[in-house]
Amino acid sequence: MKLKRLFLGAILALIFTPISNTFASVQDFYFEDFTADYYLTKLEDDTSNLHVKEVLTAVFPETNQNHGITRTIPYTNQGGVNKTVTNEAALNLTVLRNGEPENINKIVVEDGYYTIYIGSASKYVHGEQVYTLEYDYTDVITEFDKNGVNVSGVDGAEKAFQELYWDTNGTGWSQKFNKVTANLHMSADVYEKMDKKAWCYVGSYGEKGEDRCEITLNGDGFSFVAKNLAARENLTFVTEFEPGTFKVILEKNYILVK
Q1: CB 77 within 8 A of CB 85
Q2: What whole-number distance in Å separates Cα of residue 231 and Cα of residue 130?
């Protein structure tokens, strides 16, 4: 029997903040919408690949206050043990603003995540701005035994099910989100091995908030929707697969050097 569980902090929070070093008021904006599409497929060696497309609609004040946003993308999961992005080039990052290529000021490699500074120091952004980010992860699946113990990469362990656990907008925000939508898409060979159940949690770190999330089963996966997320609130979704759906390789997390 598969277990319904909530793993807190399995993936580092995704954090967006404004680019500016002038006033504390740079935090005074909000997100009208966050819509992310996640495309889960198998690579030729049967390991997992997750292509992410995020569309963030930010609403900035008309004053000369903000230059852009800062995006933090984790490159590990499973408590920092497993590496999901091998290097900066493998991230395959592209960024648009209002449909046009946007400046990536710099990318800083931190302990377990990349900090990506988006925008130009010589330009301010005002009003509604739509940011589109696309990037890739590999080895995003975790394996468990019948007792819910993580047995990823353990030879000889009896595997009961596999799982994708994903934080979407993250708990690091100082801004509210009026609506958050996560659409999980799967290739046909993955979809047929998926347990047609999913779970969704909304709230600040440590909260469940299951009643705040609407889940819809689609032809190629699930959609998860939540509204009126306050600062520091996140949407997390979970779905499970039959054992053996993916080849799970636990890659040790070593410090990345550019």
Answers
A1: no
A2: 19
Residue 1 predicted with pLDDT over 50: no
Q: What does the block give as tokens for 90? A: 């493998």
SS3 60: strand
Q: Which residues have C-beta within 8 Å of that of residue 255, sequence separation ≥ 6?
A: 111
Q: pLDDT tens digits, residue range 173-220?
A: 899 999 999 999 999 999 999 988 999 999 998 888 999 999 999 999
Tens of pLDDT, residue by residue over 56-101, are 999 999 999 999 998 888 888 888 888 999 888 999 999 999 999 9
Q: What are 96's two structure tokens?
A: 């648009």
Phi and psi dihedrals of 188, rounded to 5? -60, -40
Amino acid at site 154: V
Q: Is 18 or 60 the better-scoring residue by pLDDT? A: 60
Distance CA 234, CA 144 (A): 24
Q: 3-state SS string over 141-159? A: CEEECCCCCECCCCCCCCC
**Are the C-beta atoms of residues 21 and 65 closer than 8 Å to each other?**
no
Give the integer Cα–Cα distance in Å for 61 and 77: 35
Residues 6+ apart with CB under 8 A from 175: 16, 27, 29, 30, 31, 231
Buried/exposed code over 220-240 (b: 16+ C-beta within 10 A; e: otherwise): bbbbbbbeebeebbbbbbbbb
Mean pLDDT estimate for the chain: 88
pTM summary value: 0.89
Q: Are 164 and 248 in contact (CB under 8 A)?
A: no
Contact 190, 184 (CB under 8 A): no
The residue type found at 197 is K
